[in-house]
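User: I'm curious whether this sequence folds into something compact or stays loose and floppy. Could you predict its structure so I can see for myself?
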Amino acid sequence: MRLRFYKTIFLLIVMSVFSLNAYSQVIRLPFRYVQSFIILEVKLEGILPLKLIFDTGAEYNLLFNRSHTDLILDSYLRDIKVLGSDLSREVEAILTDSLNINIEDKLKEKFQFIVLKESNTHLSEVIGERVDGILSAKFLKNKVFEIDYQRLRINIYNSKLSEKKLSKYQVCKINVHKDKPYVYSDLSLSNTDSVYHMNFLLDTGAGLAVLIYKDEQASLQIPDKFIPGKIGSGIGGVVEGYISRSKYLSFCKTKYEDVVSNFQKVSSTYYLQEKKYKQGIIGNQILDHYSIIFNYIDELIYLKRIKGKDHNRYDRSGLSIIAGGYNLDQYIVAHLIPGSPGDQAGIHVGDIISGINGISSEFYNLQKIQGMLSSKKRESVRLSLKRNGKKVKREIILHDIL
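Assistant: Here's the prediction. I'll summarize afterward.
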């Protein structure tokens, strides 16, 4: 009887150790997905809370202001300059020594950061909440990791994945340059029968579907039907370009038709040096259709499709709205497309949205507002506005503008 008892105890211990070892093979980092950006909550030097965008397209870790690092003694090494999002303007910054980062109390790493000398709030205004910077995925270059957009977590694997798990995924060859993942894709535009074979960066730091670089030497022509204006915000401010639709984008045996495409004209020396590696970006509005396993070492990704995602969603009002005020709780019309439903309704740049469909804007966030203005299920949206101290009411009749 005593022997049987000891055998039972031994078996329970073995099972417990096996369970702990099995669990330790994967680290799960939960994230929030806001306005098509992956946001990780971390602690700098174990104390200072930061919200960082997880970015497979970033070469360096970046902080948008120096308020946190100024508190850390001897954290700075030297002054440097970084390139803005327009790939031409340089921005003054400081390089830090290696600093301790605790990610969700599950992973501790040391990172150097580039800290902007002049505070940049553009991404916070676009996302609708404070974000402090960018965390490059380079620290995972020797790991296999998965971005699970459905369960909102990043899984970091410390052992080889089983064939049974990988059998649920579609394997795809990528090419890795400067620790960033690229995939060759076929792009067909609406104004031509030509198919362009292009190398796209898989960029989780881009809150859009597709961005295509256009330089003066390229044969690629922007489609006849397009909207000029703001295509994004980043370091250095607003990025100007053109928005249109492409016939299709095809990569990894997956084809997206009638996809919203952003075009950015570039001519900088940096781009001309890099263009053989990168002709564009595939962002989160396409990547979030999958759970994606990245294996930089073997230059592979594994894709598992998430059902029911709409990749053609786009604003139907012509309004570009940002969050302003000290707490980012004011919703301001920053840009307006001429001739769009918003323009026809009499909306003005600078108008502050105080209510939507009879409900105070206090009960909305920026993501909810922009979702309403993009919805194909809605025919109209009624806005209460503040304009130069006066109250104004307008109704936007939504329709597709691309």
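Summary: The chain has a mean pLDDT of 89. Residues 222 and 263 are 7 Å apart (CA to CA).
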